[in-house]
């Protein structure tokens, strides 16, 4: 419904902090209090704050799926409410990527506000989160847990509505599945997914020499052009139709994207600025050994936290914000279609990290070859399937 306003109630917690963790989120119509969506998931071992942020993210994603234009977020986590409202700094580096992900979702609404509420007014989300924590701890969710008040009076701060047995049953039904539809093995129709073919650009002079290559516009080498041609042939053999080839603005990507688009019969080539590589600042054009020698402390800090930027450069938290923005644009522009994305190591790694629900260590452990191909499907309900990571079979002999 265009212009719809919703309330997102979210909660999360851990048994032990850190310990077995889970979150819950509920989306309600702001006027009637009707429950429009529920989300609940066990997330393994995590802290209370991580689980709370995950609940917020799930709630915002669910609100987006309802077509909401405006959102009021209600949580009993003072920390998340104050940080997302911009009144408190995010000092914990581990929470910054989650806050960045939430901020990327916030930009997709006309307005988002944050309200702290006491825990007793957040019982529906709390019930979902507790059931998810039970599952994370290997327990069967208790049917005697307090349930949520589901009537409009409870949502507006008036008299508390009586417990709703059907609401409790629903909360346990969702949590007992172990996750929401986003992480379910339930088959989905393939023709409703947006399929993304993610390609790192081909080799450049910097690639050959092991140099940091960020915003510098280094062209493809002769070998890189050959790799681009091989990637174009591989893509043409994998898919029957492509809606667009979307590229970083740097020439090492647009050159490869142009070759791929031409091989597909001239499909549109779209330049997306948010797919540009990380800005490596003072490290641009230098080898890892040179950086280690000159900036040892800065390099250690950068490797330890995605919130740390190279001197004069950009952090992976900042890159994540714009990659999330680019991904959201792709899903909005090409629902149910196939899109080829030609980008760089950092944006492709971040997209794969988030699709696989991996930790930030993934960014430094995954190797992506020049012209390596990764493939993922994303469904309208937020479900994801990563089908291929760094496939290089098409590069044999080059």
UniProtKB/TrEMBL annotation:
Gene3D superfamilies named among the record's database cross-references: Phosphoglycerate mutase-like (3.40.50.1240), Ribonuclease H-like superfamily/Ribonuclease H (3.30.420.10)
Signal peptide location: none
Keyword hit for Isomerase: yes
Annotated binding of substrate, by residue: 252
EC numbers for this chain: 5.4.2.12
Biased composition (Low complexity): 147-163
Cellular-component GO terms for this entry: cytoplasm
InterPro entries cross-referenced by the UniProt entry: His_Pase_superF_clade-1, His_PPase_superfam, PGM_Phosphatase, RNaseH-like_sf, RNaseH/PGlycerate_mutase, RNaseH_domain, RNaseH_sf
Domain RNase H type-1 residues, every copy: 2-142
NCBIfam families: PRK07238.1 (NF005567)
Protein name as catalogued: Phosphoglycerate mutase
Species this protein is from: Plantactinospora soyae
């Amino acid at each position: 419904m265009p212009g719809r306003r919703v309330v997102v109630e979210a909660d999360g917690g851990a048994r032990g902090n850190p310990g077995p963790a889970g979150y819950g989120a509920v989306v309600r119509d702001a006027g009637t209090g009707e429950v429009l969506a529920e989300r609940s998931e066990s997330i393994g071992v995590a802290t209370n704050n991580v689980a709370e942020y995950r609940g917020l993210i799930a709630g915002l994603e669910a609100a987006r799926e309802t077509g909401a234009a405006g959102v009021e977020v209600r949580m009993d986590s003072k920390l998340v409410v104050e940080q997302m409202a911009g009144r408190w700094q995010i000092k914990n580096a581990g929470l910054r990527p989650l806050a960045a992900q939430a901020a990327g979702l916030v930009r997709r609404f006309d307005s988002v506000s944050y309200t702290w509420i006491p825990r007793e007014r957040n019982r529906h989300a709390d019930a979902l989160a507790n059931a998810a924590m039970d599952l994370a701890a290997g327990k069967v969710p208790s049917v005697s847990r307090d349930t949520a008040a589901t009537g409009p009076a409870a949502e507006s701060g008036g008299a508390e509505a009586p417990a709703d047995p059907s609401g409790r049953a629903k909360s346990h039904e969702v949590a007992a599945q172990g996750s929401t539809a986003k992480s379910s093995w339930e088959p989905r129709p393939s023709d409703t997914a947006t399929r993304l073919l993610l390609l790192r650009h081909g080799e450049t002079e910097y690639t050959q020499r092991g140099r940091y290559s960020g915003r510098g516009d280094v062209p493809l080498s002769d070998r890189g052009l050959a790799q681009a041609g091989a990637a174009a042939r591989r893509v043409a053999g994998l898919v029957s139709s492509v809606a667009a080839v979307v590229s970083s603005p740097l020439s090492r990507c647009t050159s490869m994207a142009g070759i791929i688009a031409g091989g597909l019969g001239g499909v549109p080539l779209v330049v997306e600025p948010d797919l540009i590589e990380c800005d490596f600042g003072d490290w641009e054009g230098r080898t890892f050994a040179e950086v280690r020698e000159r900036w040892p402390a800065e390099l250690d800090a950068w490797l330890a936290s995605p919130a740390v930027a190279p001197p004069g450069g950009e952090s992976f938290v900042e890159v994540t914000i714009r990659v999330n923005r680019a991904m959201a644009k792709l899903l909005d522009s090409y629902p149910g279609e196939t899109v080829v994305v030609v980008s760089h190591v950092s944006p492709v790694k971040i997209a794969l990290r988030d699709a696989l629900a991996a930790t930030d260590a993934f960014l430094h452990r995954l190797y992506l070859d020049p012209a390596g191909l990764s493939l993922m499907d994303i469904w309208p309900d937020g479900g994801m399937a990563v089908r291929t990571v760094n496939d290089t079979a098409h590069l044999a002999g080059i």
